[in-house]
Amino acid sequence: MNENLVLIGFMGSGKSSVSKALALELDRFLFDSDELIEAKFQMTVREIFNRFGEDFFRREEEKLATCFLYMKNSIISTGGGFVKVKKLDKLGKIVYLKADFDFLKNRLSKEDLEQRPLFNDEKKARQLFNERLALYENLSNLTVCVEGKSIKDIVYEIKKDLKCEF
Questions:
Q1: DSSP state string for 15-83
Q2: In this structure, is the dihedral angle defined by the CA atoms of residues 111, 115, 120 and 124, taken in order, positive or negative?
Q3: Which of 62, 97, 128, 136 could form a disulfide with 13 if both were Cys (CB 3.0 to 4.6 A apart)?
């Protein structure tokens, strides 16, 4: 495999957990867009949203997408809204971790929900999920349903379907 794998999906779909396991399995570097932005500002995503707003955060994601263009053979874990960056299709093979909204909502703990500022209002979060669904599906090279699967099973499915080197 000579290109990046970019994991996309809605909040709570397992992008961070799967990307960590995938990076270890494929011996690749891992870049997590949310973690990188948090490190830059020494704040959580929630704090960045509260202090600077969502538009500011999205501009930071655009900057990261430009940086990611220069990465090779890496695993890139993205935030749920990263799917809207202009250069997403140029970053590598895009893997959509798919799950139903209710599955995601029930999967997240109270602490997890508190860390996701766009999940504050369930009605708005469901609407956002529905708005992003077509983007996730249209941009992905591979869709993996994560419901009822272990991280190990998801990693195996990605490797098998993309014919990654073992």
A1: HHHHHHHHHHHHT-EEEEHHHHHHHHHTS-HHHHHHHH-HHHHHHHHHHHHHHHTT--SEEEE--TTGG
A2: negative
A3: 97
pLDDT at 166: 39
CB neighbour class for 102 (10 Å; exposed up to 12, middle 13-18, buried from 19): exposed
Cβ 55 vs Cβ 46: under 8 Å: no
pLDDT 10s digits, 116-165: 666 777 888 899 999 999 999 999 999 999 999 999 999 999 999 887 64
The helix (H) or strand (E) run that includes residue 97 is strand 93-98
Helix (H) / strand (E) element for 144: namely strand 142-145
> Residues 24-66: pLDDT tens digits?
999 999 999 999 999 999 999 989 999 999 999 999 999 999 9
Please say if the pLDDT value at position 18 is more than 90: yes
Nearest alpha-carbon partner for 11 in 119, 109, 114:
119
User: How are the residues of the chain apportioned to helix, strand and coil, as percentages rounded to the nearest 5?
Assistant: 55, 15, 30
Any residues with CB less than 8 A from the CB of 52 and at least 6 apart, and which?
A: none
Residues 82, 36: contact at Cβ < 8 Å?
no
How high is the pLDDT of residue 108?
A: 74
